Write the C-alpha cells for this entry.
Amino acid sequence: MSSTRNRHNIQLAAFYFPDYHCDERMEKEHGPGWTEWDVVQAARSRFPGHRQPKVPLWGYGDESEPEVMAKKIAAAADHGIGTFLFDWYWYGEKPFLEGALKRGFLNAPNRHRMTYALMWANHPWRNMHPHGWNEPVRTLLESDVSPRSFDRLCGILLEEHLQRPEYWTICGKPFFSIYDIPRLCENFGGIPPLRKALDQFRARAERVGLAGLHLNLTSRGETILPGERKSNAPELVEELGFDSVTSYIWIHHMPLCDFPRSDYRQLRTRYLAYWDRAEREYSVPYYPNIMTAWDASPRTVQSDRFLHGEYPYDPVVENTPEQFAETLRLFRDRIALRPEEQRIITLNAWNEWTEGSYLEPDSECQYRYLEAIREIFAE
C-alpha cells in the first residue's frame, strides 16, 4: 500500500466531493459559471447560534486548476492524509464532475505526495442546490446502468485510472468502492449476474497486468438522499465477493433525532456500537469512518422555514477541533491493534462544504482540524 504513512502505519483516506468547478451539465441546470460554491455563499444562519455561512480560508477556488488542487494536496499530505477517495459519477454513458480529478489532481505538480482512488457514487443526481421545503424531488441524472454500460465503465476505469502510479492499492490491488450495491443488483436483475460482471471486471484487471482488484462496499443502514437504498447486508458482501466494507458517514447507520441540533459525542457512541456489530457481522475487514460534522442546511432554500423533515432539512451536528481530536485518538488506539494491511480509516470528508463535513480550513477554525490529525497520529 503506497501513500502518506504515520508512525502507527494507519492509512487515512478522505472522501472528496468534486462539485467545486464548472461542469457543462450543471451549468445547463443552474446557469453559466455555477458551482456548489454558490450554495456555500448563499447559506445563512437557520436558528439561534447556528454557525453559517462557512467561509473557506483559501477562498472559492476552482478545484480543476492544478495550482488550486496542489494546495489541497500539500495540506492533506502535510497533515497525514494519504489518499483522496473521489466521489466518482457515471451518468448517460459517461463520467460526470471529473474536472477536479482529471484536470486538477492528475495535473498537480505535487500529485506524487498522495494517492487517489474512486468511490462510484451510483445514486441518481437530484436537484438539491437548493431544495425547497416540501418541494417535490426532481431527478436531473439517472444512475441506472445496463450490463453493457457497466462493461464500458469498467474499460474506462482500467484505461484511465486503475493502472496509474498515483492510484491507491491495498496489497497491490487497486481499491474501488461502490456506493449503492442494491441499486446495481437491481440493474443486473439479481446477485448472480452482478457477481459474474464483477468477476469479469477482476479478470480484465489481471489481463492488463494488475494483481486484481480490491472491491469495497459502502455500507448504509439508514438512507439520507432521496432514492437511496440500504446496503448493510453481510450476505451481499459474501455473495458478491467484496474484499472490504466501509461507511461514507456515521449518519448512514443511525437516524438523527434531536432537532435542530444533535450531539456529536452521542452520535460517536452510537457509531462505535455499529463498528462493533460490523466487525462481528462482516466476513471481510470493515474500515471505520470518522465524521467531522453534519449540516446540510446550505442546500435548503434559505427563505423557507427550517423545520425537521426530509434531507436536507436535517438536524445539524456541530463539532469542535477538541472533540474531533478525541475521536481521532479513540479510533487510532483501536485500529492500531489490527494487522497493518487492515489499518485503514476513511474520513468524511475533505470538502463536503454544503453538508458541513469538511477538513479544508475555514475562516473560523482555520487549520485546527488538520492539525489535530497530524498531532494525534504523531503521538
In short: The chain has a mean pLDDT of 95. Residues 30 and 221 are 32 Å apart (CA to CA). The chain has one domain: 11-376.
